[in-house]
Amino acid sequence: MSKITLIFATLLIALGLAGFFGTGSQHYTALIPTWIGIVLAIGGWLSISPSESRRKLFAHVNVTVGLIAFIASVVEIFRGLAAAHAKGVAVNPIALSSKIALAALLLLYIILCVRSFIEARRSGKV
User: Comparing 43 with 125, which gets the higher pLDDT?
Assistant: First the structure.
């Protein structure tokens, strides 16, 4: 699970940096996926341990971080759409696509984590 976490952390860091530099380095909120990726990367490195209890702990911490970030990104997508509609302006396509990509990556990460947890439980590794 730690390898998957590190892969998704790298993807989130890249997404945040691409969004930031893609907007001309003007919008620091585009770095939000980078910060989420850094938190997951730290958790991923901490979950690489010979101690089973430590691996379990950080695997669950990482998926919890991913779940909270996913919920927040979905809320932010709808909030941004509602605000743009209320103001009668067009939605920023770069911001919207970045938020959707963030939510999609986090959802995929959560699904893979849950499948891994179920597989570990069924195989008797728990």
Answer: 43
